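User: I'm putting together notes for a lab meeting next week and I want to include a structural view of one of the chains we've been expressing. I don't have a solved structure, so I'd like a prediction I can at least talk through. The sequence is below, exactly as it appears in our construct file.
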Amino acid sequence: MAEHPVFQAVRQRRTVYRFRSQEIAPEVLSELLEAATNAPNHRHTEPWRFVVVRGAALSRLADLRVELQMERSARDGKPPGDLDALRREVTQARTIVYVIQHLDADEKRQREDYASCAICAYILQLTAWERGIGARWHTGQLVASRKVRPLLGLADDEEPICYLALGYPDEEPKPWRKKTAQELTRYVE
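Assistant: Thanks for the context. Below is the predicted structure for the 189-residue chain, given as structure tokens.
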């Protein structure tokens, strides 16, 4: 076991873009979701919910992705791009997990809960990486569009904050140059 496994997972984790066809075992996915519920959460509201999209539902989600891109293309007057690539972007991972925020009536609490849900998603991503499972975090059209709500079975007081495409990596992306903490930190004494 590594001397500092959390530190190593944070430093070594990469966003995965290509996945093998191997399914994630249900018990492994359950463990990952359970780990994610350990996110810090002010006032213990536990605002996170999960929607797991697999099997035939991935095809329906891919159809919606293409539909949304066609609408955007028509609105912007630009070509839609490679629709088959958009479809593969959704279906290749074999498992998609939406992290959903249960919306509190209090706006301040909603902001706090949003942060907790984002941390929850990151814990899911890190624990997946530790188990050899890659992830790609998405916040685009399939999160923002109201058209995704019926497919996910969302209630009026639920809001998707992101989805994670999960799967066993087909390749491991190389790290990219990031600014150091020293470049980004200001001390006030």
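A couple of points you could mention at the meeting. The domain at 24-55+91-172 is CATH 3.40.109.10 (NADH Oxidase). Strands lie at 48-54, 95-102, 134-138, 158-167.

User: Perfect, that's what I needed.
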